[in-house]
């Protein structure tokens, strides 16, 4: 199984089916994922809480891997997730990129950049004009 297939299996198992008890099947015990939260890397045991928190907000998750580049033990992937807001049923889209290093068939490190700002704006947790307001040096109260 190639690294792209492992990543597809990870998204299908953990995010789509919600089998968070299987996180250890995909990550080495000492691995870390950064870029999901500012100045904080998360470990495999933290991932379960993040997936459960997100599943309280959204449902009907579908993940597409749009492009990949593999080199040696690295995989870079452009990812798009589509889902629905759990409270309104509104469609949502989250896009981003992940760069992963594999060792022994599991993720050893992950560097992520996903548009969570845009995602939470779609969910209604941030005002539609939040980015413009911030760029205008206005604070969000």
TrEMBL record:
Source species, domain of life: Bacteria
InterPro entries from the UniProt entry: Cyclase_SnoaL-like, NTF2-like_dom_sf
Gene3D superfamilies: 3.10.450.50
GO biological process, one term: polyketide metabolic process
Pfam families assigned to the protein according to its UniProt record, in alphabetical order: SnoaL
Transmembrane segments: none
Name the UniProt record assigns to this protein: Ester cyclase
Native source species: Palleronia pontilimi
Lineage start: Bacteria, Pseudomonadati, Pseudomonadota, Alphaproteobacteria, Rhodobacterales
